[in-house]
Fold:
Amino acid sequence: MKDIIDLDRYPLHRPHSPEWDALVAHAKDGLVRDGLFNLPGFMQPAALASVLDHVHPRMQVESFHHSRLHNIYFQDAVDGLADDDPALTKVETANHTLCHDQMRGTALDEIYQWPAFALFLAAVMDKSQLYTMDDALAGLNVLEYRSGEALNWHFDRSIFTTTLLLQEATKGGLFEYAKDLRSDDDPNHAGIAALLAGRITPTQLTQDAGTLNVFLGVNTAHRVSTVGSGTSRIVAVLSHYDTPGRSFSKQEQMGFFGRVA
Structure:
């Protein structure tokens, strides 16, 4: 694993050592302060290059082009809101996706399946244990955003999201977020409408390829801005749950991946 992850900088292989404990504490501090943390240079350059060599040709011929209009909630209707409420303004998301079964045997697959990786994330999230998905398609996905494509404003359903940036976009493709735009007690529909109308300036997150990011997105609105001409943005999403055996339904698989496992 030392050829894939910079274990000198991020000693995931030595759980409960003083260095590991310090890294967990650093990550927790970031979640409390910013709602996220970054580990720059998490992936070794040679391993990153190997993954991109695997991804680039497959993206051209095997990826699923996912495109849809949606509101920030990814719901057809929201209690308390009329259909024409500004908080339900439609936005467009488009990207190209490779699934877990298309990434088997790669360095990304090794990271995702490595128990020490799940152990580290569990410690950061104060969970007793985290599990990979029992799903041939979901669990590990690689998403490419090409010129004119974006992941538009939304809230996450899962408590946290783990990503590894594989390739930065030449123009655009920036991760942007509005921290704690809503809360469990306050849906803040007016604030959401203001964000969608451009009256709230989101925070932009600068990342280099090889950076691991963990993000709390349930109440923080976020997006990847539209990619411009030049190099695309490519990012891996690695999904863990606190219960074993999680899988997408066949309907979800078809919607997100264009096929059923």
Notes: Residues 18-34 form the longest helix (17 residues). Helices lie at 18-34, 45-61, 107-113, 115-124, 189-196, 250-257.
